[in-house]
Amino acid sequence: MTSRTWSAALRSGAIRALLLAIPVAVLTVGWAAARGASGERLAIATVISVVLVAGIGIFVGNSGVESFGHIAFAAIGAYSVAILATPPEIKRTRISEAPLGLADIRLDVLPAALVALAVVAIAAVVIGFVVMRMSGISSTIVTLALLVVVNGVINNWTAVTGGAEAFYGVPTVVTLPSALGVMLLVLFVASAFKSSPWGLMLQASREDELAASTMGVNVRLLRLIAFVISAVGAGAGGVLLALLLGAITPNDFFLTLTFITIAMLVLGGKRSTTGAVLGVIVVTIGNEIFRWLGDGPMISGFQLPALPGFSTLFLGVVIIVVMIWRSAGIMGDREIDDFTKRWLRKAQVRPTALPGSTARSTARLNAENLVKHFDGVAAVDGVSLEVGPGEIVGLIGPNGAGKTTLLNLLSGVLQADSGTVSINGELLPRKLHRVARTGLARTFQNIRLFGELDVSENVQVTTIVASSSHDHLMHPQDLLTTFHLESQAGRKAGVLAYGDQRRLEIARAAAIGRHFVLLDEPVAGMNEVESLELRETIRELNGLRGAGILVVDHDLSFILGLCQRIYVLDAGRIIAVGTPAEIVSNPAVIEAYIGASAAQHEQPDATRGTEEPQPDEDHS
Predict the structure, then answer these.
(1) Pairing status of strand 302-303 against strand 298-299
(2) 167-168/247-248 β-pairing
(3) Where are the annotated coiled coils located (predicted)?
(4) Which one of 112, 228, 360, 405 is CB 3.0 to 4.6 Å from 124, fit for a cystine?
(5) For residue 18, with 0-12 CB atoms within 10 Å meaning exposed, 13-18 middle and 19 or more buried, which class applies?
(6) How many CA atoms does the CB half-sphere of 216 hold within 13 Å?
(7) What are phi and psi of 174, to 5 degrees?
(8) Residue 594 pLDDT more than 60?
C-alpha cells in the first residue's frame, strides 16, 4: 500500500464529504430560517441523524455484517459526556454515590466529548474482539444482544447513570454550525474509508469471505478496525444528541432509535455514504409531512381527520416499497461523485506496482505425506507432491479422487490431519490470509469473485495485499491486458460472461501468487477455443514471472498440452507421476481414469506437451 493510494482515498473522501454536506447544510439552514426555533431543532436533529447513520454505515456497508447494536455506542457516548460535563451540584442530586469521584468532576464540553469518544472506542475494541470471531447471523445476534445489555446496564447502574429516570443538567451547547462541522468530519471519514485500501479489502470480504481470505485479506482485523471507527461515529451522534436534549433517558437510545437509523440506512442504500444521507433526508421530510397530515390539518376548506401514528405508517410503507422496487436501497452502492470514480480508480490502482518489476520466482512447493479424513474416510491419504519454480504441473484423477481436498490443503483452506506443506523449507502458515502473503494463491472450482466490485477492483484487492508483502509485482493493468480483460475494467465482476469470470479469477490470483498459482478446473464450462486461449495465457504468465503453476482439470487435452509433469490421484493416493507421454501410457492410469481408447486418442497432444520449452531454461 503506497502513500499515493491513501492520498487518493483521502482526496475522494474530501470531495464526497463536501458534495454531501453542502445540500444538507442548505436544507437544514433553510428549515431553521423558515421555522424559527422549532425548525432549528429539527435541522440539528436531522444533522445528528446523518452522523449516526453514516457512522453505522462504515461497518455495515463495507463489511456486509448487519448490526443492531451500534446505538449502544451512541448511548455510551451520550451518558459519558453527560456524566463528565454536567455540573457537580446537579449530579450530586442524581449520582451522589458514583465511583471515582465522578459526581464531583466537571470537564468543559469539548474535553468531555473527546473523553466520551475514547470510552466508546475502548468499549468497541473489547466488544469487537468478541463480535469479529463470529460471522453471518451469529454476529448480528451478538450486536442485538449488545444493545440489550448496554440498555440494561444504563437502567440498573443507578450509581453512575441515574437509572431509568432522566439524567438532566447536561449543557445544551449544540448549534447547527457545530453539528454540521461534526457531520462533515464523519462523512469524510466514512467516504475516505470506503475508498481506502482497507475499505476495498473489506468490501471484498463482504462479497466472498473465503475468497478474500485466500487472496491475503485479514478479514477479522479489517472488520475490527471498521467496527471501532463505526462505533466512534455512532458515539459522536450520541454525544451530539445528549448536548442537544440536555436530559437523556435509556429509552432515548434503544429500540426506537435503532429502528429509525437502520430504516434510514437501508432505505438510502447501506453500501453508499450518499445513500445514508439520502435516507435521512427522505425519512425526515416524509415524517414531517405525514406527521402534519396525521394532525388533521385544514386543506382547501376540508378538515382532514386526525390520524395518530400516521408518520410511523409512512416509514413502514416506504421501506416495503423501496425493498420491493430496489432491494439495495435507493442509491445501491452509487455515490454522488461517481462521475470522478474512473479517475480516482486509476490513481489508486497504478501506483501499487511498477511495470517490469516482476522478478522471477525461485521458490519450491513441497507437500509431504498429507493425510485428511472426513468422518473416518481418507479423502487424502499420504500424498507427497512437489512444484518447482517455472513448472506447470498437472493434477488429474476421477471424480471423488480428492483433488480439490488436496488443493485446499496446499492453499491452507483446510489443515491436514498429518503431513506438512512448505515453501522453500518454511512451513505454510496456519492462518489462511497469511498463506497468500507467502506468494501462493489459488482459484476455485466454483468461481468465487467479488461480484459487486468491478474487474479492476477485483485485481486491485490482491495487489494491495501483495504490495504490503513484497516489492516484485505484476502491474494490475498488465494483468488485465494479459488476460484480455482491459476493456471490461469498469464492469462489475458479477455481470461478466462465464469465460471472462474465469479469466478474472485467474488474473486476481496471479496478482499475488508470485511463487505459486493453484488452478482448480480453470477451463470448466469453456468451449474449445476459450480453452486454447486460456492455455496460451497461462503459458505467457508462467514465462513472464516463473511462478510454479499446479492445474487441476478434467479436460485431459488441456492438461496434456499444457503441463510438463502430471500427478494422477485416485482414492486419495498418488498412483502415477510423469510426463504427459508417460501418463497416457501408464496402465494404472488408463485403468483408473483415462481408458484405453481415450489414451490412444490423447497420445499426440501428450507428445506436443513434452516439446514445450521449459520456462527455467529460457531464463536461466
Answers:
(1) antiparallel
(2) antiparallel
(3) none
(4) 228
(5) middle
(6) 28
(7) -75, 130
(8) yes
Helices 255-268 and 70-85: angle between axes, nearest 10 degrees: 130
Q: What does the pLDDT look like over 485-495, one tens digit per residue? A: 999 999 999 99
Q: Per-residue pLDDT tens for 184-230?
A: 999 999 999 999 999 999 999 999 999 999 999 999 999 999 999 99
**Domains of the chain with bracketed CATH:** 3-347 (1.10.3470), 365-618 (3.40.50.300)
Q: 357-366, 530-539, 577-586: which range is least confident on average?
A: 357-366
- The torsion defined by the Cα of 200, 206, 207 and 209, in degrees rounded to 10, comes to 100
Cell for 257?
A: 432509535
> Do residues 37 and 168 make contact, with C-beta atoms less than 8 angstroms apart?
no
> Does the pLDDT at position 478 exceed 90?
no
DSSP state of 450: -
How many CB atoms lie under 10 A from the CB of residue 305?
7
pLDDT over threshold 50, residue 353: no
**pTM for the whole structure:** 0.90
Helix (H) / strand (E) containing 576 = strand 573-578
Contacts for 243 with CB less than 8 Å, ≥ 6 apart: 81, 85, 109, 113, 170, 171, 172, 173, 174
- Helices marked H in 248-402: 255-268, 273-294, 310-325, 341-349
d(CA 528, CA 533): 9
Residue 611 exposure: Cα atoms within 13 Å on the Cβ side: 6
Cβ-contact 39, 33 below 8 angstroms: yes
133, 449, 574 from 508: Cα distances, Å = 27, 9, 30
Specify the residue for cell string 455540573. Answer: 87
**Kind of pairing, strands 548-552 and 573-578?**
unpaired
Query: What is the identity of the amino acid at 249?
Result: T
